[in-house]
Design a protein that fits this description.
about 55% helix, alpha/beta, 3-stranded antiparallel sheet, 5-stranded parallel sheet, 10 strands
């Protein structure tokens, strides 16, 4: 099978702030029969591209003039920007380090290519994305290719998601816009629900950490981080539950965000009622996410009662 037959159909975004390096890599891609090559030189320019027409493949340097690519990759995978969180992404670097490798892969990049790379090396990496792309996995803080060889000790094996491979469809000449969009929507919905469940578990974990810090009088930097993480996890959950069966418990997430912010403001002198409400809310969320209409309704009633109590206390 000639894997290059339809490379000319692929919409590729090449991101490099270095003119000479960009020209060299562009020539290599042209030799591989890529024809539709758009360019960018910063995170800001990537965002503009994603707002208009996202590519099937992005090849980007890790270090860019307006900061490294990590946050942008994380935003793509978590569907905070762009329309396809599963687009194929290869990160390149001329100065590899252990920290850089972890940052790029932990943000959800499919692959990391150390420069200078030969035409053969680049072709092999792209072919792997086309014919042997890894399924995705969803955790509390990661969405991206599953690189694990086994489950971590003391943890359950995570279910993987076979995400749409638009790059493969284009290269194999099998592009069907309607079918591709339906597959993309289905995968996004699946990942979204998985992330909501993971968020629920993460909220429980953060709650234990926060309560333990106050019980042991460890009111320090990590506590602030846990409270901020709790707020961002709650906000992410609210964004994801829109239009799902869990939308009925939006009030739970809103309330736990309110409590977390109150604790953050008080910090050294937390209200006893907030420390009591926090585990009740976390438990309600856990019950609601057990995929039962009955428990969701019960948890929502608990949330309503908690919100009413908060309102009465605020008036008092």
């Amino acid at each position: 099978m000639n894997t290059r037959t339809f490379y000319n159909r692929v919409d590729l975004l090449l991101v490099s702030p270095r003119t000479q390096n960009s020209s060299s890599l562009r020539q290599t891609l042209t030799d591989l029969e890529f024809r539709e090559i758009r360019t960018a030189a910063s995170n800001a320019e990537i965002l503009k591209v994603l707002e208009t027409r996202p590519p099937e493949l992005m090849i980007t340097e890790f270090d860019l003039p307006d900061g490294n690519i990590r946050e942008t990759l994380d935003d793509i995978r978590h569907h905070r920007i762009g329309t396809n969180p599963f687009m194929s992404i290869i990160v390149t670097t001329w100065q590899p380090s252990e920290a850089l490798v972890h940052q790029a892969l932990d943000a959800g990049a499919d692959d990391l290519l150390i420069q200078p790379a030969s035409r053969g090396q680049l072709a092999k990496r792209i072919e792997t994305l086309v014919f042997n792309r890894k399924p995705f996995v969803v955790t509390s803080n990661y969405i991206g290719p599953d690189r694990r060889t086994s489950a971590r000790p003391g943890t359950d094996a995570l279910e993987t998601v076979d995400v749409p491979n638009v790059l493969q469809s284009k290269i194999m000449g099998e592009d069907n816009t309607n079918a591709s969009q339906n597959m993309l929507d289905a995968a996004i919905a699946k990942v979204n629900l998985d992330k909501i469940i993971r968020n629920g578990s993460h909220i429980g974990y953060l709650t234990k950490k926060i309560l333990s810090a106050y019980e042991e009088d460890n009111v320090d930097g990590p506590l602030i981080g846990h409270l901020q993480d709790l707020v961002s996890t709650g906000e992410d959950s609210i964004r994801r539950i829109r239009g799902t069966k869990y939308e009925v418990i939006r009030n739970l997430f809103e309330t736990i965000i309110t409590v977390a912010r109150r604790l953050e403001l008080a910090f050294n002198c937390p209200e006893g009622k907030d420390l009591k409400l926090l585990p009740e809310l976390a438990m309600s969320i856990r019950l609601a996410l057990k995929d039962s209409d009955k428990t969701s309704k019960a948890a929502n009633e608990i949330s309503a009662a908690i919100s009413n109590t908060l309102s009465q206390q605020d008036v008092a």
